[in-house]
Amino acid sequence: MSTGENLEPLQALYPFLGEKKADAAALEQALLISVQQKIAQHLDVVGQFFSAQGEAVVGCARAVADVYRRQGRLFTMGNGGSSSDASHIAVEFLHPVTTGRPALAAFDLSCDKTVMSAIANDVGYQHVFARQVASLVRKEDALIGVSTSGNSINLLRAFAQAKKIGASTIALCGGNGGEMAKAGLDHCLIVNSDSIHRIQECHVAIYHVLWDLVHTLLADERGFSGSKAQEQQNPITTGTHGGRP
C-alpha cells in the first residue's frame, strides 16, 4: 500500500491533514453529518441500555432508597471524567434543585485534594478511595463507583473495603463491565459501548433517573421530612459542592 493510500482514511477524518486546503462547504457538510451521527449513536446507546436494564436501574434505586431509610449516606468515587460524574451524583442528592425534594446525605470521596494527595504520596494512588472508605463508610451506607472501563484498581480496592464493612456497592461501568462485573458487587450497571463519550453520556442519564426514582420511592415515607434529611448530614458537616452554575 502506498503512502498516499495510507493517508486517505486519516484525511477523511481530519481534512486539514491534506496538502490542499479543504473546501469550506464540504467541510461544513461533513461536520453536520458528524453531529447527526454522534447524536444517533447517543440515542442508540441510551435507548439500548434502558431497554435492557430498566429493571436493574429500578433495583438499584430501591437499594439507595433503603440506604436513606436506615439513616445511611451515599458516597461516590471516580477518576478523571468519571470523577466529575461522581461529584455530579453527590451534588444531585445533597443539593436537589427540584422544589419539594429534601436534601439527602451524599459525599464525593475525591473532593478533598489534601486527603487524596496525602494517601497517593504515602501509600499509592490505588489506595486513595479505600483508605477513606475504611474511615468514613458504615454498613448502613452505599458506595457508588463510576468507571468507563470497570477496571480502575483504586475503585476496585474501595469496593472490596466497602464489602468488608457491609455497605451497599454500586458500579456504573462501560464496555463489558471489566473487573467490576466480576467483583460480586450488589449492583453493576453496564453501558454496552466501546465509546468513552457515549458511555459517559449514558452514565449521566442513569444517575439522573436513579436520583428521580429514589425520591419517588421515598416520597410517601411518613416522617421523611426535609428537616430529618438535613439531620442525616451531620456526621460529615463539610459541604462537598457549591451552588449550581
Terminal CA distance reads: 52 Å
What is the overall pLDDT average?
88
Q: Which percent range fits the helix content?
A: 40-55%
- Helix and strand composition category: alpha/beta
Task: Tell me the fraction of residues in β-strands, as a range.
Answer: 5-15%
What sequence of helices (H) and strands (E) makes up the elements? HHEHEHHEHEEHH
**Radius of gyration from CA coordinates:** 21 Å
Tell me how many strands there are. Answer: 5
List the total number of helices: 8
Q: Numbering strands along the chain, what is their spatial order in the largest sheet?
A: 2-1-3-4-5
Oligomer: single chain
**Rough outline:** globular
User: Poorly predicted ranges (pLDDT <50, ≥5 residues)?
Assistant: 224-245
Major sheet details: 5 strands, parallel
Provide an overview of this structure.
53% of the residues lie in helices and 10% in strands. It is α/β, with parallel strands linked by helices and 245 residues long. A five-stranded parallel sheet has the order 2-1-3-4-5, with helices on both faces. The chain starts with a helix and ends in a 14-residue tail after the last helix. The relative contact order is 0.16.
